[in-house]
Specification:
The chain is α+β, with helices and mostly antiparallel strands and about 130 residues long. Helix 3 crosses helix 5. The longest helix has 12 residues. The chain is globular and about 45 Å long.
Length: about 130
């Protein structure tokens, strides 16, 4: 889903659903993993490390094993289908976004350049804790 304030604006917002596999893939330090769009098994990312660069603009550092972060990990491990029901999401800003539809417009391939996670750093770090 996209949102634009006006047709004349160059700013556009996207609301997307992304798998945890893709979220880990695009935020990890390993460029080979980041560029591999065909990863479908979380085990392939089990040794991935979070790139701290994507959290530079995040307003808060990681708070560690708080009650909330522990609940994020618990939900991912025990009830993953409820994860996005219990979580308010992650906000990513990017200098440039290219969105191209695929599979008769049933999927969208997005390319983000110079992106930052500006809200959801606790969630992202908890996801890495659970992986």
């Amino acid at each position: 889903m996209t949102y634009e304030e006006s047709e004349l604006s160059s700013s556009k917002s996207y609301i997307i659903s992304m798998t945890l596999i893709d979220l880990i893939r695009i935020t990890c330090t390993d460029t080979n993993l980041r560029d591999n769009f065909n990863i479908t098994d979380l085990a392939a990312l089990s040794n991935a490390s979070l790139s701290q660069d994507v959290l530079f603009d995040n307003v808060r550092g990681y708070l560690g094993a708080t009650k909330f972060n522990n609940n994020i990990v618990k939900t991912i491990n025990e009830n993953p289908s409820k994860f996005f029901m219990y979580n308010n999401g992650i906000t990513i800003t990017a200098k440039n976004i290219i969105a191209a539809t695929q599979n008769a417009k049933t999927k969208v391939h997005m390319t983000l350049s110079e992106f930052q996670i500006v809200n959801g750093g606790q969630t992202l770090r908890s996801i890495y804790e659970s992986a």
